[in-house]
Amino acid sequence: MSFPDLTADLAARMPELRGRLLPNQMLAPLTWFRVGGPAQLLFTPADQEDLAYFLARLPAEVPVTVIGLGSNLIVRDGGVEGVVIRLARGFSDIVVEEGHRLRVGAAVPDVKLARAAADAGIAGLAFYRGIPGGMGGALRMNAGAHHGETRDRLVEARAVDRQGRAHVLSNADFGFSYRHSGAPADFIFTSALFQGEPGEPAEILAEMDRITQAREASQPIREKTGGSTFKNPPGHKAWQLVDAAGCRGLTRGGAQVSQMHCNFLINTGGATAAEIEGLGEEVRRRVKESSGVELDWEIKRIGMAAPAAAPTG
Question: One of 149, 207, 277, 298 is an active-site residue; which one?
Fold first, then answer.
């Protein structure tokens, strides 16, 4: 499927735009699941100023969706209407500041932040080695692993809203909770400042190695997957509920519940987004039926289902 091309109209409205506009750009290659349809328009801003310029001039009726590294994401097969914004090179700086602090762009991968902190002798951020994704997503969902969460180390973050206005949010402004932040939904995070503590690089790197080994031993990280699928309900582990419901190894088309870690869905090859999402919904149904506990998605799902095929004959 393809959408009407918005580029000519937007280019006329934004003569000084420096970022890249691509109409009907397939999003599957940008996601870890490798599924999904096109973005009506994919915009990669040059920097924060370019992003603000774009948003301030974008017609209010055009929907905006933000994606990061695509690790915790299902793009539905019908694609995403409006503009999909993906931050890239202009948001990838890492700067070591005084007081054992790191300021990082929202496009920086979590693992790269952990490594930069280790190289600078900054402890307290090694847990990011175990989180697939980028810093923008970590801010939005209070990403955490291995006894650490984003809210534990965030000092402040910078963002641009749908009208192109810049904001600075303190940690308290986020209203963090488990895998959630209360920041306004239309804020696009552009950078963040993290507080660490003094540490020995060798010890920090050793901790990161332990995290890496633990992930490789227990998670299907070499598969086409989106990471943890469901949030842990209060008092429960999602994977245990999925396992107890008999869903380990369950399949739907090319989608499968991982045999290694059953809170992971994987694309075994050729799966559609509908098969992956449908499998997840079937898991939720079976868990609810067997335990009475309702699982909430941790993976973000965006876009529209593919149009139904026309009948033949």
Answer: 298
| β-bridge pairing 20-26 and 38-44 | antiparallel
Active-site annotation holder among 101, 103, 179, 285? 179
Active site residue 191: no
Q: CA dist 179 to 32, 214, 268, Å?
A: 20, 21, 27
- Give catalytic status of residue 290 as yes or no: no
Q: Where in the chain is the domain with CATH 3.30.43.10?
A: 17-89
Fold of 17-89: 3.30.43
Q: How many CB atoms lie within 10 A of CB 125?
A: 28
CATH topology of domain 220-301: 3.90.78
CATH 3.30.465.10 residue ranges of the chain are 91-203
pLDDT (tens digit per residue) in 97-141? 999 999 999 999 999 999 999 999 999 999 999 888 899 999 999
Q: What is the pLDDT of residues 181-223, one digit of tens each?
A: 999 999 999 999 999 999 999 999 999 999 999 888 888 888 9
Catalytic member of 71, 181, 228, 258: 228
Residue ranges, CATH 3.90.78.10, the chain: 220-301
Q: Which tokens sit at 274?
A: 């509908």
19 secondary structure, DSSP code? S
The model's pTM: 0.92
3-state DSSP assignment of residue 129: helix
Task: State yes or no: is 298 an active-site residue.
Answer: yes
Kindly report the CATH number that applies to the domain delimited by 91-203: 3.30.465.10
